[in-house]
Specification:
- There is one protein chain.
- The protein is α+β, with helices and mostly antiparallel strands.
- The protein has helices at 2-5, 14-28, 32-39, 47-60, 64-77, 83-89, 93-106, 108-119, 123-133, 137-146, 156-165, 168-172, 179-192, 208-219, 226-241, 253-265, 268-274, 281-293, 332-336, 345-350, 372-375, 413-425, 432-446, 449-452, 506-519, 533-539; strands at residues 306-311, 322-327, 330-331, 361-367, 377-385, 388-395, 409-412, 456-463, 470-477, 493-500, 527-530.
- It has a 4-stranded antiparallel beta sheet.
- Helix 7 packs antiparallel against helix 8, helix 10 packs across helix 13 and helix 13 packs parallel to helix 15.
């Protein structure tokens, strides 16, 4: 395709070139999705002729293939006069993706508007889109101040596009600004760093550093409330060890923002918020998170070049708990992988996977947001060589664009061991139900027969994603497992046992759970959560109806 189209792109006879492109594309049987990649770096001998051809194809093209070629040319050579035409093409779902790519360089707010128009199902977002499309800035800003940014409707990608569409950095820079808009800006920044997407969206937000600066400059205007404390702490945690560290900061600029946030949250009116004890459970859970995480982003102690940061996000907007891995102060996973979060502290630390030995060991550091089977994972081999710990032989999924190979990292073994020991013993980030889960997992590791005697095989043990005060234990029931007569092709079922936090010490709750497993068949009190209806019927268990299985994960 590239060889077939390249000579036509600089033909001064635009109409003749367009007709020939139509003919060749159909002859070659090219699909729409292949056009953009093929056009990305084709040599253009006459940019003016190629621009004219792009305009002709986008305005008069009679197939999506030809129009895609025109969009690809304008993505490289377009000018402001092309924006209205691209905007109209973006209303066609089949062309929205390449149009957004072309508009991002030409007019980022319009690109964001086209993206939102094609992705936003939420009624409130449609109101914002209409306001921006009609250039009604007052209505757009009114929406920004008042709209609830529910995580179900506003994920990381949508948050970035909203920020671009409303030109958030400009709003924060205005002389007069409502404190609700400042708070919403913080929520959008925090949401852009969320883990529920295939990449850290904050790294694609061109105005990120400007917006961070403007937000922190306005942060002292926020009244000291629980919600505002959580917003400021969330922003600080990401500036400290999240993907925002990788932005193109000026020297010491990020550190200055952290010092400013620390100064605000150290004020007596703000510390009173952190020391409160609300009656409402969700608010109390949030305060306890603040108490655990409040000092983490402001820790300026001298550390070795390798650091592990167990990080928990605001429980009002729950997300995966990750063991952030920092090398020379830079978060490794978003920089080297970027398709999902770092694995959990339990997976990397409690298991001993990050410990170095003379025998090389391959370790999965992160898995794609969708699963490894879909978009891959990041692996490294860890070994000890004399007084050094070496990370080498990286494995990660291929990308469309070539990228540099990851280097070998060499760490002083004594410093590395000390950091692993510190991180493994530091449970200051964990809440009671999480500690209960950890103790149960350790007990079942030491006594696997507790489940095996009931024909059970342990699955995952943790806390419920949406209800963090629930400890959850999953296991698979394989008839005959205890007797060594398991039928791999026979019926099986997955069960989940949920344990609410009863307020007693986590180690006591774990001990009670292990005693119950020793004395009572867990299939009599856990709920079926996986397998199939036919397996459940064959094994004599009720299959959960939809209303009974809302929390099954």
């Amino acid at each position: 395709m590239r060889e077939s189209l390249a000579p036509l792109l600089s033909d001064p006879d635009t109409v003749r070139a367009a007709d020939e492109i139509h003919r060749r594309l159909h002859t070659l049987g090219i699909r729409d999705r292949h056009v953009q990649a093929a056009m990305d770096d084709l040599p253009l001998e006459d940019p003016a002729a190629a621009r004219a051809l792009g305009r002709h194809l986008t305005r008069a093209g009679t197939s999506t293939l030809a129009v895609n070629v025109g969009i690809a040319l304008l993505a490289r050579l377009g000018e402001p006069e092309d924006v209205p035409y691209l905007k109209v093409l973006g209303l066609l779902r089949v062309l929205a993706r390449p149009v957004v790519g072309a508009l991002t360089a030409l007019d980022c707010p319009t690109a964001a508007l086209v993206w939102l128009a094609n992705h936003a199902e939420n009624r409130a977002l449609r109101h914002l889109i209409d306001a921006i499309a009609t250039r009604d800035d007052h209505e757009a800003r009114k929406w920004l101040i008042n709209a609830p940014l529910d995580s179900g409707a506003v994920g990381p990608s949508t948050a970035r596009r909203i920020a671009e569409a409303v030109q958030l950095a400009d709003i924060l820079g205005e002389e007069q600004i409502d404190t609700q808009a400042v708070a919403q800006a913080g929520r959008l920044l925090s949401r852009m760093t969320g883990l529920r997407d295939y990449q850290p969206e904050i790294l694609s937000y061109q105005q990120a550093t400007t917006t961070y600066n403007a937000f922190v400059a306005r942060a002292s205007q926020l009244p000291p409330t629980l919600d505002h404390y959580a917003i400021l702490l969330s922003v600080a945690l990401d500036l400290h060890s999240g993907p925002s560290v990788l932005l193109d900061w000026q020297t010491r600029q990020r550190e200055a923002l952290l010092r400013a946030l620390e100064a605000i949250l150290s004020n007596q009116s703000w510390t009173a918020v952190a020391e409160s004890e609300p009656e409402e459970p969700a608010e109390r859970r949030r305060v306890h998170w603040i108490q655990r995480a409040a000092r983490q982003p402001f820790d300026r102690a001298t550390v070795s070049r390798f650091r592990v940061e167990a990080t928990v996000r605001d429980p009002a907007d729950p997300d995966t708990v990750e063991a952030r891995l920092l090398i020379d102060g830079r978060p490794l996973i978003p920089e080297a992988f970027g398709k999902g979060p770092a694995n959990s502290p339990e997976y990397l630390l409690d298991s001993g996977r990050l410990r170095a030995a003379a025998e090389p060991r391959e370790v999965q550091l992160a898995e794609a947001y969708c699963t490894e089977g879909c978009c891959g994972a990041l692996y490294v081999t860890i070994l000890r060589e004399g007084d050094q710990v070496v990370w080498r032989d990286w494995r990660r999924p291929p990308t469309r664009q070539p990228r540099e190979e990851l280097p070998e990292y060499h760490f002083d073994a004594a410093d590395y061991d000390a950091e692993i020991e510190r991180a493994a013993n530091d449970r200051s980030w964990a809440w009671p139900a999480r500690n209960t889960a950890r103790s149960i997992a350790a007990g079942l590791h030491d006594q696997p027969d507790l489940l095996a005697r009931w024909d059970g095989q342990v699955g995952w043990i943790g806390t419920d994603f949406h209800h963090q005060d629930l400890t959850t234990i999953s296991f698979t029931y394989w008839p005959g497992l205890a007797a060594g007569q398991q039928d791999k092709d026979g019926p099986w079922l997955q069960f989940i046992w949920s344990l609410p936090d009863d307020g007693t010490p986590p180690e006591n709750q774990a001990a009670a759970a292990l005693r119950q497993l020793a004395e009572q068949d867990p299939k009599t009190y856990a709920q079926v959560s996986g397998g199939s209806r036919s397996h459940a019927e064959a094994l004599g268990f009720p299959w959960p109806e939809p209303a009974d299985s809302e929390e099954i994960t």
